[in-house]
Amino acid sequence: MTEKKTLIRQLSDAVKLAVDATQGITDIVEAMHHRIGAGPSLLGKPLDGVVKAVTAPTYAAIRGITKLVGMSIETLLAQLEQLMPKSGLERGTMIAAINGVLGDYLAESKSSLAMEMRLCSNGLDLSINRDDLQQTFTTGNRLLILLHGSSLDERCWQRKGYNYGSTLAQACDLVPIYLRYNSGLHISENGQLFAVQLENLVSQWPRPIEEIILLGHSMGGLVARSACHYAEAMNTAWRSQLSKLITLGAPHHGAPLERGGNSLETILGLHAYSKPLEKLGRIRSAGVTDLRFGNVLDEHWQGRDRFARSHDPRTTLNLPANVECYAVAASIANKKTKGRQPGDGLVPIRSALGLHETSELSLDFPLDHQLVVYRTAHLDLLSNPQVYQHLVQWCGAGRQKN
Asked: Most buried of the four, 37, 303, 315, 379, by CB within 10 Å?
């Protein structure tokens, strides 16, 4: 098992994040001050040099004080950490949310707040070792891997009395294993990491594996599709053992919320005085910006400014071959609502079902493998009785325990 991060260390990294954020806001305010005080552009900004010279000491002082405060708190926390036990309290929900928004920054800065990808069972990280796996899982050769969505962790599967993993295990003779990952990284990066993690698990599993089922909620469905692609490129053993892929509210073709963030950023950049605020729109992780169109491959984002307004850059990526693929979408409206049905509050129905106006991008989920549930929000897909009954049907294949 991996050693849990101490609360003091987490607070230390939270302070670092706050200091960096303060420095960033200072940059924005200073840029606006210079922009406004420099005078009209038509006259060549006659006061630009004067304003910068007069304000430079003030903003330098702000940055210096912020840095000193951060250093002082860091020193205090370092002293306190020596008095604290090695294993502290986890702040799982908060950390997962922070990683969803800033996870790429946390990983790049090697922050202890950055979530590392782990396969989990019963709330504990798995030791991917044959003997340890034999002790943890004494029986079972049909694996159900559950992938959470953005800004969440594996605990999201326990919702309103439901836990699809444990209940499907009982109903369908499955071994539930949960993936935890940093949802702020690019989806393709997580897909590649997951493909390797699953290959390690399969190679160390104490018995021959009969089949693997992937169940992904929201972004987790995109990570699963990405992993299938990279598993084929790596020629992994688990790819041939994959029998079913099930996605719940996955934004296969993007989510309007991220497009809205990109539009706001563009609007701010149109006016000279508001342009410095454009930086605020860039406080979004790589994982979040991937959700604009549903990027799942490296080539969907590499070599591009992920904040720039652009057309859909994706190329065709079909559903994995020789795998039964299922898609669940939700609508917050009643089924009898006239007109175009709204989505689940985050993901449109067509996106969740893989439908696209461009045939090359549309995903071919068979009609009898699609489900739309009504009066259900995005997170409620994790605790919906109709969804659960279909999951039993799709995962069971006559294998229910007596």
From this structure: 379
Number of Cα atoms under 13 Å in the Cβ half of residue 378: 21
CA contacts within 13 A on the Cβ side of 381: 32
| β-bridge pairing 118-121 and 124-125 | antiparallel
pLDDT digits (tens, 9 = 90+) for 239-260: 999 999 999 999 999 987 654 4
First and final CA of the chain: distance in angstroms?
34
CA–CA gap between residue 204 and residue 225 (Å, rounded): 23
Q: How far apart, in whole angstroms, are the C-alpha atoms of residue 15 and residue 69?
A: 9
- CATH (domain of 133): 3.40.50.1820
In this structure, the answer to whether residues 241 and 335 fall within a common structural domain is: yes
Task: Determine, yes or no, domain membership for 322.
Answer: yes
β-strand partners of 247: 216, 327
Domain enclosing residue 391, as ranges: 118-254+314-396
The pTM for the full model equals: 0.77
Q: How many domains does the chain have?
A: 2
- Residues 192 and 54 grouped into a single domain: no
Residues 86 and 127 in one domain: no
Pairwise CA distance, residues 309 & 267, whole Å: 10
Residue 402 resides in a domain: no
Residues 116, 182: contact at Cβ < 8 Å? yes
Domain membership flag for residue 155? yes
Same domain for 86 and 139, yes or no, is no
Is 149 contained in some domain? yes
Q: Which residue has the tokens 């898609």?
A: 327
Asked if 136 contacts 84 with a C-beta cutoff of 8 angstroms, the reply is no
Q: pLDDT tens digits, residue range 328-359?
A: 999 999 987 766 788 998 899 999 999 999 99
| Alpha-carbon separation of residue 189 from 193, 202, 296, 380 (angstroms) | 6, 20, 9, 27
DSSP H helices, 205-317, are: 219-234, 238-241, 256-268, 286-290
pLDDT tens-digit series, residues 68-126: 554 554 454 444 444 433 443 345 676 787 788 788 888 988 877 789 999 999 989 99
